[in-house]
Amino acid sequence: MSNTATADGLRVLGLFAHPDDEVFVAGGTLAKYAAEGAEVMVISATRGQAGQIRDSRIATRRTLGAVREQELRRSAACLGVQHAVCWDYGDGALQSLDREPLIRDAVAAIREFRPDIVLSFGPDGGYGHPDHIVMCAVAEEAVRRSGDPTQFPEQLAAGLAPHEPSDYYQGYFPPSRLLLLERLAQWLVQHNDRFRGSLEFVQAMLLLCEESTLLGYASDFVETRWYPQGFYIIEQGEPATNLYLVLSGQAHAVVEETDGSLRPLGRLEPGMFFGEQGLAHRRPRSAHVVAAESTTCLVFSPSQPTSFAGRGEDAVLVGGLPGEAEGPEEIGADVSRVDVGEHLMAKLRAMAAHRSQFVFDPDMLPLSILQELFGQEYFVQVHLQRELAVGR
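^ thats the sequence. predicted structure below, dont judge the formating
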């Protein structure tokens, strides 16, 4: 899969399980192909009716399938994709279905649209989702059989001639060593005043963390922690290991002087980060942070915390310390890397078009971090032995 060759005249088909899969597997790549003149189609096997409802103003459980179908069309428009289709297979149920009807429909789509390139999830489904895994197998089998005239002869009778796509690529998500906590800390210390995000920013950050850690874009361990009133969330002098975002409640930052007296620094409220100074400058904590009331924080750690980590300036067992972010792990020679930075905003707008699932505005989040997380896409080319299908 080339970063430079023109796509004028090509046809590209993406076969996925749910509305929004097209963005995470290949959003930038689809936008790149479309911008270079390709005709592009995305197909979702389900209407995504078993997904989340993150904004009650948008959908109910009864209407979610129809809403997500429309979201797929809006996402496609953001990417420049000309054709977007939802089938109506059961969301979350693909694993239990007879695959032959799915394969038949996929073969029909290939024979009708006649793509040069087909894209799908890889065999791991990105993160093990059963529907994604099924659609990988369906896409692979459809590409294998679509050129065989003995397969689904009723389609030939209906005017759908056999067609073999030239190339088939599966999406790949290499595990990254990038730490969001380091990138966020560096971004935060560039502000002259303490940053305070809106509640919409907090929601967007929660979604960013969920997706980036789920798909391996970042290696942080991110969790939500509750602290009772009076709890020392951070202790002055201890190593800086974590970054915190206040979700609810409030905390006080105080400096402990050498005589034991406490000097207030300020109040930390929802939408505020703390802990970034020690992380950005590689130095111990310069103040205590104490929960002023019941307080909940989103906590970014470089690794999963142990149950035996010590606290305080003299603690020996302190858990994992952040290191330099090093980007993705080594990838094999069979993996193609596509730079989609030029189409990043189209990809982010397409993600935001799935508003029932992702309530965020791309402008809320640091563009430099989004570029690192979403600016590259990876694929493995699959070479199928189509001759095995002949004569079935």
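Residues 387-392 have pLDDT under 50 and may be disordered.
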